[in-house]
Structures are given as C-alpha cells and as structure tokens.
Amino acid sequence: MNTTLKRIIFFALIIGLWESGSRLGFWTEIILPSPTSVFHALYTGIADQTLIIDLIASFKRLFIGLGISLFIGTSIGVLLAKSKTADDTLGSLLLAFQSVPSIVWLPLAIMWFGLNEKAVIFVVILGGTFVMALNIRMGIKNVSPLFLKAAQTMGSRGLDLFIRVIFPASIPYVVTGSRLAWAFAWRALMAGELLSTGPGLGYTLRYASDFGDMSLVIAVMIIIGVIGAIVDQLLFQRIEKSVIKRWGLES
Question: Which candidate, 49, 124, 125, 177, has a CA 20 to 30 Å from the CA of 202?
Fold first, then answer.
C-alpha cells in the first residue's frame, strides 16, 4: 500500500467518524460543525469569491514579507558567520528573539505603523528573518576546511572564495533556512491578520469567530493547513531532497 493510498484512507476515516459523531449528536454544531457544514461554508466562500480575495491578499503580504525576510536574514547570517564580534553580540540577541512568538510583536507593530498592511508585513518579516539568519550562519560556519584550503591553494580569496566555495557549500542550510522561514512567516501572517482590517484569511477567521460561524472558522483553518502542507511537501521538501542528494549528504 503506497503512501498516497494510506493518506486517503486515513483522512476518509477521520471525516467519516467526524460526520457520524455530528449526526449522532455526540456534540453540537456550535462546538464542532459537521464536515457537511464545513464544506458548504467552504463552497460558499469560494463561490462568492470571499475566500479567493482573502487568499490573494494573504499571499501578497506573505510574498512581500518573506522576500524581505530572506534577504535580511541572509545578510545578517553572513555577517554573523564572518565577524566574531557580531556573532558574540548580535548573534546572542537573535537567539533571544528567535524564542519570541511573532504575535508578541504585533502590539509594537501597531504602535509603530498603525493597524494596516505595514504592521502585518512587519510581523511576517520578523517571523522569517531570525530563523533564516541562524541557518545561514550555521551553513557558512560548517563549510569544510578542506574546501577552503583547496580553493585558497588555487588562488581563490575574499569575495571570489565566498561566491565560488563558501556559499555553494552552504546551500543545504540555505534551503533548510528558507523552508523554516516560510513556515514561520506563514504562521506570523495568520497571527498578524487576526487583528488586521482585512481582507485576509486570518481576518476572515476572526470575523467568523466573532459571529459564531464555526463552519467558516474550520473551513479557513483547513485552507491554512492545506496550503502549508502543499507548499512544504510539494515545493520545499522536493528542493531539499534534491539538494541533499546533489551535495552527497544522503546515500
């Protein structure tokens, strides 16, 4: 039995038990709506384009925030790897910030930028920057000394050494950092949109919760989870596996 078939059977079983429990009255609709109600809310949201507009708005914020966080994170990571002073000072600060949930930054972001797009994007940037910086730092620091000595023997120095040897050798860490940055940024986006003025998936989630529309709440949660799983498994996992094999890190 292949993996796809196992997953289909597993989710079919969960949905079947969920629907059966709802029909038998084990819980009320306000506590946990049935799959039928959830899929109806999902269909309605797509049919009237509400959820489509939310998706477009969320992805716009995500692409802007994630792109900026990857650039800033990579730059900081290189700085930490190349400067011991920066690593001892700024590096310790980044480790502390890494443990702070992104939503904690939201009140500060609102005070700085107001309750608007900039505040949400700011939270997304913070969500991805720290983890990207730490992975880049680790990747550069873990480049084999043999590679460096071989390149230096052939006359490679400075920027040429970094471009031709150090950065390519740290690509597996770059891919892993990007994958984690995406995951953290996606979560930060949903947290930020909960207090936004919309549109967006997080905004619709809060709106539905405020009005007791639990079917729509679960429908949005399913969309968020499915998108996260698709991007991670179909994009980042494949890239990561390809890089690992290409770099000889997997037999």
Answer: 177
Distance CA 178, CA 71 (A): 10
3-state SS of 45-91 is HHHCCHHHHHHHHHHHHHHHHHHHHHHHHHHHHHHHHHCHHHHHHHH
Q: Where are the beta strands (DSSP E) in 81-218?
A: none
Report yes or no: 236 and 178 within 8 Å, Cβ to Cβ. yes
Q: DSSP 3-state assignment of 175?
A: helix
- pLDDT of res. 235: 84
pTM (2 d.p.): 0.85
Reported as a pLDDT band with limits 50, 70 and 90, residue 122 is: very high
Q: How far apart are the first and last CA of the chain?
A: 24
- Which position has the token pair 């969320």? 58
Structure tokens of 246?
């290409």
State the average pLDDT for the chain: 87
What would the two tokens of residue 95 be?
A: 């480790």
User: At which residue do the structure tokens 């494949």 appear?
Assistant: 238
According to the model, what pLDDT value does residue 101 have? 85
Judge contact between 45 and 216, C-beta under 8 A: yes
- pLDDT mean over 113-125: 90
Burial of 12 (0-12, 13-18, 19+ CB in 10 A): exposed
Handedness of CA 102, 106, 111, 116 (dihedral sign): positive
Sign of CA dihedral 173, 94, 66, 158: negative
Torsion of CA 95, 74, 200, 53, to 10 degrees: -160
